[in-house]
TrEMBL record:
Heterotrimer of A, B and C subunits. This is Glutamyl-tRNA(Gln) amidotransferase subunit A. The gene is gatA. Residues 1-446 form the Amidase domain. It comes from the Bacteria. Keywords: ATP-binding, Ligase, Nucleotide-binding, Protein biosynthesis, Transferase. Its EC number is 6.3.5.7. One of its GO terms (cellular component) is glutamyl-tRNA(Gln) amidotransferase complex. HAMAP family: GatA.
Length: 454
């Protein structure tokens, strides 16, 4: 049924870069047979899933939205993909994204735009716009995203889907094509909070192949979602981040946010305002740290090891010249912009002023969170300041594009978990997201509060 639906609507949504029809059907049939034979299977066995193209999948192309990886077929699976296959979820295919996950609209993909199913003229968010659009368009019931600065949560908000960024280290990064290693985290994109909890429990947990993976087991997420669904939040203290609301937020977004605060109060939660004074500098720090790490991570795309290789048109074929020709042809503008910015921020003489200062700001933001979580159990805000903007609207203005991440970035800088749950429609008829943040390793709180709002 999902493959039929993809055939019917993906021509206009373009959520998929690759459809894995034969293998998905084979997995579905195998699961059916095993179930008929009475085998005890994972609760999600047989439920199809779409995977963001930045996650490597054995035997299936993995381009990360870049021309430089066109035609590269990874020889191995990411840990999370291994877990998905073992549990018997048919993989429907790979989803579109901004090149190397740099962007907030999926317009930086080298393979064309993805359209928001709510209005095909609008962006589906980014960088994981393909995964969110697939879930919103009913071309996948579950999807995998990655969130370095909001790329699961912001697409969730603008497509009316649920998106979760787990605690840093909560889901293995082995087999993720790295953007910024200290910020990257994979997580679920689904239609309901309970679905996200089920998927998060499946893909999460310790992985010896990722040195930043958290050794202890995940908290009980499915249980928390079920508890939250009962609608009782008495004893829960909720902090509204003063810096992440009000001015700069679209009126309809702010109204829906305040209505949800009322729902939390009605469910018995205590709602207070909390100040995080250094959040003002989060975006600036992020857009130095991310390019710095990305410039280093992307150095491996040298025209020799993976994917594209372009030889210089004339002159000697040296390693350096092949690298320059390949990277010149294979990377898009946003990637080049960030590699140049990151290389500059890391260069001798500028390192302390830019990268060093950004790291200090990062510590201040972590302290803001520590102080806030000493007072409250969870923090809340709108997920994004606006609803989905029009395709092309911010494409020529990188700063305007970056501003869309203002509410999601602090969580990545601190390594804490966050969820975006659908928060109704704004006055323009487009979906709004409600963000819940919790302390590191307390991902269960996201599910309890998120499910109570559903
Ligand atoms: N929009 C952010 C950026 O462009 C988020 C990226 C992400 O989470 N992958 O960096």
């Amino acid at each position: 049924a999902y493959l039929d639906r993809i055939a019917a609507v993906d021509g206009s949504v373009h959520a998929y870069l690759h459809v894995n029809a034969d293998e998905a059907l084979a997995t579905a049939r195998d699961v059916d047979a095993r179930r008929a034979a009475g085998e005890e299977l994972h609760p999600l066995a047989g439920v199809p899933i779409a995977v963001k193209d930045v996650v490597v999948t054995q035997g299936m192309p993995s381009t990360a939205g870049s021309k430089i990886l066109e035609g590269w077929v990874p020889p191995y699976d990411a840990t999370l993909v291994e877990k998905i296959r073992e549990a018997g979820l048919p993989i429907l295919g790979k989803t579109n994204m901004d090149e190397f996950a740099m962007g907030s609209s999926t317009e930086h993909s080298a393979y064309g735009n993805t359209h928001n199913p709510w209005d095909l003229e609008r962006i589906p968010g980014g960088s994981g716009g393909g995964s969110a659009a697939a879930v919103a368009a009913f071309t996948a019931p579950l999807a995998i995203g990655t969130d370095t600065g909001g790329s699961i949560r912001q697409p969730g908000a603008v497509t009316g889907t649920v998106g979760v960024k787990p605690t840093y280290g909560g889901v293995s990064r082995y087999g993720l094509i790295a953007l910024a290693s200290s910020l990257d985290q994979a997580g679920p994109v689904t239609r309901t909070v309970l679905d996200s909890a089920l998927l998060h429990e499946l893909i999460g947990g310790h992985d010896p192949r990722d040195s930043t993976s958290i050794p202890e087991p995940l908290p009980p997420l499915v249980e928390a979602a079920k508890q939250g669904a009962l609608g009782d939040l008495s004893g829960v203290k909720v902090g509204v981040v003063s810096q992440l609301q009000g001015e700069g937020y679209q009126a309809g977004v702010q109204t829906r946010f305040e209505e949800s605060l009322d729902l939390l109060r009605q469910a018995g939660a205590e709602v207070v305002e909390v100040s995080c004074p250094h959040f003002e500098y989060a975006l600036a720090a992020y857009y130095l740290i991310l390019p710095a790490e990305a410039s280093s991570n992307l150095a491996k795309f040298d025209g020799m090891r993976f994917g594209l290789r372009v030889e210089p048109e004339e002159g000697p074929v040296t390693a350096e010249r092949v690298m320059a020709a390949t990277r010149g042809a294979g990377f898009g503008d946003e990637v080049k912009r960030r590699v140049i910015l990151g290389t500059y921020a890391l260069s001798a003489g500028y390192y302390d002023a830019y990268y060093g200062s950004a790291q200090k700001v990062r510590t201040l933001i972590q302290r803001d969170f520590d102080e806030a979580f000493a007072q409250v159990d969870v923090l809340v805000s709108p997920t994004a300041p606006t609803t989905a903007f029009k395709l092309g609207e911010k494409l020529d203005d990188p700063l305007a594009m970056y501003l869309n991440d203002v509410a999601t970035i602090p969580a990545n800088l601190a390594g804490i978990p966050g969820i975006s749950v659908p928060n109704g429609l704004s006055d323009d008829g487009l979906p709004v997201g409600f963000q819940v943040l919790a302390p590191a390793k307390a991902d269960d709180r996201l599910y309890r509060v998120g499910a109570a709002l559903e």
